[in-house]
Amino acid sequence: MRSYGPEGSRLTALLRLDRLRASPAGSNYAMAVDQLLMLLPDRRRLLEGSGLDLYRDFDALLIATPEPRDDTVTFLAVRHHMKDAALQAALDRSAAAVRHTIDWRLEDGRPVGVRRLASTASDKGTAGPDDRIFVLPQPFLAVIAPPAYAGLLLGKGRTSSDHGDAGSPDVGESTRTEKKISRVDWHDLVARIDAEDSALPEDAVFMITVTNLLVFSDVSPVVPGTRGVVDDDGHTQGVAPPNPQVITLVAGVEPAPYLELTVEFARETEARAWERGFPAWKRTLLSHPVLLFAGFAPLLDRIEPSREGTRVYLHVDTTAQEMQRLLALTTNLARAAMGRPRP
Q: Any idea what DSSP says for residue 240?
C-alpha cells in the first residue's frame, strides 16, 4: 500500500507547476487548475496578501489529508525557488493581511514558524481555526499544516503552543518533567514528499491518490450465484460492486493530453469482477444526461480497461477542450462534496 504524504493520509494530490509552466499548452489549464486549488483554504492562507504567485514562484504542490472535508487536518508542502528569507517575508505579509503574526525560530538550523491571530499571540494555549505551523525543512521546500500535525513537524510530545520553549535558555527543567519532548526529525517527512514526487510519471503534471475513501454503491453487473458471470444487459439488481482500496488519477499534457486511472483492489478476484463489469457500467454512464450534455460521451466511449493482478487501468487520450471540461467538472464535483456536512 502506498505511504505518500504524512502517515494516515487518505487523499494526496501532487501538482507539478514547473512542468505546467514548461508546456506550451500549460497556460490553457492554469486557470482551471487554480479554480480547483481555490477550494483549499490553505491555498488562500499561503498566497493571499503575500505578493507570491502560484505559477511564478512555486514548482510543485503536494496536498495530503485523512479527511478532505476537514481543513483542520490538511497538510500542504510546496517546492519553490526562493531564498528562505524571501519566503518568510512573504508569509509574514500574508499573515499580517489577515491580522495574524508568525513567530519564527530555528530548529536544527532550519526556520520554523507558528502563525496565530495577533490578538491571541501572547496566549499560546489558545489555538484558533487559522493557526498554522510553517516548516522549511530544507532549502526550496516549505510545509504548512494545522496544529494537528505539531507532533510530526515540531517533534513528538510537542504542540504548537510549545513552539519557542524547547531549547530556550530561560526554560527550567521543571517544565519538562510532565512530558517527554523529542527533537524534531524531518527525514521521514521529506522522504515521503520525495516518494510522492518520484511516483509521478515524467510526462504527467497532476496526480491524485485516494485510499479507502470512495465507496461505490451502484448496482453490480455480476449475476449473483454465478461465480462472477457478468450480466451484459445490466439488469442485475441488489449486488454492490467491489470497492477499491486505492484509486489514482494521473493527468498529462505533453505531448498530448491524457488521463490514466488506476484502480487497486485487495484481491485479484475483485479486480477481475470490476474489469468484467466495466462494459455494462460504461453503457449506463453513456446514457447519463450530465455526461451527454457536457460532451463527455465520446471520451468515455474511447476508454477500455486493462488489468494486471489486483489493478485495473483505464487510459484515454483527450483533446485540450475535453481536459479543460474535465477539470471544470472535477472542480464542481469537489465543491459539492466539500460543501456537504461531515457524516
A: P
